[in-house]
Design a protein that fits this description.
2 domains, 8-stranded parallel β-barrel, 15 helices, 43% helix, homodimer, alpha/beta, TIM Barrel, 3-stranded antiparallel sheet
Chain lengths: 376, 376
């Protein structure tokens, strides 16, 4: 299912087969929280910007419109008209970051909906049922994502519970997807490594979850408050003991530089809301850093955001026009901005893949960091 | 410049040549107030939905980003990447509907910006300068748009002033567009008929402005409070005396039925914010009337908004998905909705042209009204 095609140092060039096609790794997955991409992009826009994997959020879709409806309508792919791979997160991260008055027990988590405040309970089995009904290609284990830093003892206990939850997830998803009416019987489960900023707990937890022989492993609970150096240190430790023949997914990370450094530490999958969120504030990614389009100096600038970029926005519109759209608060500003930033991230992943293919990833990595040190 | 190709009763099938190409009439113009279409559509989207004329607002563009900047950047066409005809309104309507603390004199109007409250003065000459700098193909005269009903004496005086303003507009625009640095030297001026709901004043005013021999005439100040029957009655009167060889533009109107009835009374140009505004509230046009996509009954409806519609939205997405996008407040909801409703309006105008071409406009008109009497 996962094939490593080439390596350079710890960097891996791979391919992962799903029921909706092959994913070339390293890959950046594009976030479509509620089965739509922020900024007014649809599934066909995703095709056009080179997206390989769309990522939807179990927590959000459970609240609205509900997994029963999506199952009835044939699953998420059909619902949003995306025929390539979809990964769904487990809801764990959102329950711990968005929901209110959360109460955790061995059984699961109860919390208040961030939309209407109604009380909701979600267990590992619930998360699996929702994801099975959504019919994503990759389901994520239901875990507890602790904030960094958290006390050692709490993180240790949490890791143990997350491990027990993972066993329950594995058993439940296998049961669900062997049912005759399963939306996507080929759906697979990725486990999630936790352990906060404690290398010892991270390693111990990774060893235990590796024994479950899942089709992929994610690293969760990083880039949630700790310094970047700590994150890289954890990745260095994990790169040695994470199963080599399985894809590795660094959840919710990060800047272009974080992604390159993640690849250099053996990571294959990434996702992040940063490109879309930045775009919505008029912050555009270029190889030489982020530009803020609202800056007065772009007022009469007829050049594109980035003249080396081949995205729809850069091929057609000037910085001056984009600045106007942002100042005038036109929705089109968001759309053109998100199209640029997501293209930038998808291209970044492609450049990384090409570099590994050609055996010059290390060169690419150095070149990129020297570019980033020049500011526009 | 304006050629009538065919008539059926008072309905006219025509062609109007502008510096940015030919307009087939009757035409529905698509509103892009701030040089962008609400809902996140750009100029290429307009091409794709069959838009012939984009309409931008002088008042809004004067406030933001300013006509000097747009002139410096080569005009509105280049700025927003739209290479077909553009009509700009004069700002008159917005000054009277949006701006605050307005004070009118023979010279012009002073008012407070609806954005930052700063005091602004706009004369007929100012409006012409702004429109000349924007470089639209059709500039509109600066007029006073009175609300309906208004006292006879006030409307009479206002009409006289609007006439004097029109003379000033004509002289000023000719001067501006003969300058060497004119953005669009082929820009033409349309006069605007006023007179509130008083047929006598309407007729008198139309006769006077007709003497100025302008390339086109608009009817302003209708659909601003009076009953539809009153509007049709005014149109009946004007259809007899408006210059026959000039295009006639009914400003800011209206429903599909208003447009068909306008055509039946000799109108050639229409514009309205209704399709985009309705779309943003989840109200979609179909031949059998408006459907409200937020209605519970569409929750699991896998059919398109309108299965006879060939728009991007109807070709690709279900009512169930659109309903979800609206309930989840995704920007994509607006975009897909506006794409549908504007396509509906552009198609309506095309069907009207085809019907006149084929000599069965009257049949089309009857069929449409019987369709509208059936509700979904």
């Amino acid at each position: 299912m996962f094939k490593i095609l080439k390596t350079e140092g710890l960097a891996r060039r791979g391919s992962f087969i799903t029921p909706h096609g092959e994913i070339q790794t390293p890959v950046f997955m594009n976030v479509g929280t509620q089965a739509a991409i922020k900024g007014g992009l649809d599934a066909f826009d995703l095709h056009n910007i080179g997206c390989q994997v769309e990522l939807s959020n179990t927590y959000h879709l459970h609240l609205r419109p509900g997994e029963d409806l999506i199952k009835k309508l044939g699953g998420l792919h059909k619902f949003m008209r995306w025929d390539r791979p979809i990964l769904t997160d487990s809801g764990g991260f959102q329950v711990f970051s968005l929901a209110k008055l959360r109460k955790i027990s061995e059984d699961g988590v109860s919390f208040n909906s961030h939309i209407d405040g109604r009380r909701i309970f979600m267990s590992p089995e619930d998360s699996m049922r929702i994801q099975s009904y959504l019919g994503s290609d990759i389901a994520m284990a239901f875990d507890e994502c602790v904030e960094n830093p958290s006390p050692y003892e709490y993180v240790k206990e949490s890791c143990e519970r997350t491990y027990r939850w993972l066993e329950r997830c594995k058993a439940e998803l296998a049961k669900l997807n062997s049912r005759e009416d399963a939306v996507n019987p080929g759906q697979v489960l990725f486990g999630i490594n936790q352990g906060g900023t404690y290398a010892e707990l991270r390693i111990e937890h990774m060893k235990r979850i590796a024994e479950l022989d899942l089709p992929g492993y994610a690293i969760g609970g990083l880039a949630v408050g700790e310094p970047t150096a700590v994150m890289y240190d954890i990745l260095d430790h994990l790169s040695i003991i994470a199963p080599n023949d399985k894809p590795r997914y660094l959840m919710g990370v990060g800047t272009p530089s974080n992604i390159i450094e993640g690849v250099a530490r053996g990571i294959d999958f990434f996702d992040c809301v940063m490109p879309a969120r930045n775009a919505r504030h008029g912050h555009f990614f270029t190889k030489a850093g982020i530009i803020n389009i609202k800056n007065k100096k772009y007022e009469d600038d007829e050049s594109p955001i980035d003249d080396t970029c081949c995205c729809y926005t850069c091929r057609n519109f000037s910085r001056a026009y984009l600045r106007h759209l942002f100042k005038a608060e036109e929705m089109l500003a968001m759309r053109l901005g998100v199209l640029h930033n997501l293209t930038f991230y998808n291209n970044l992943a492609k450049e990384i893949r090409d570099a590994i293919d050609q055996g010059n990833f290390e060169e690419y990595r150095n070149e990129y960091s020297s570019l980033l040190s020049q500011r526009i």
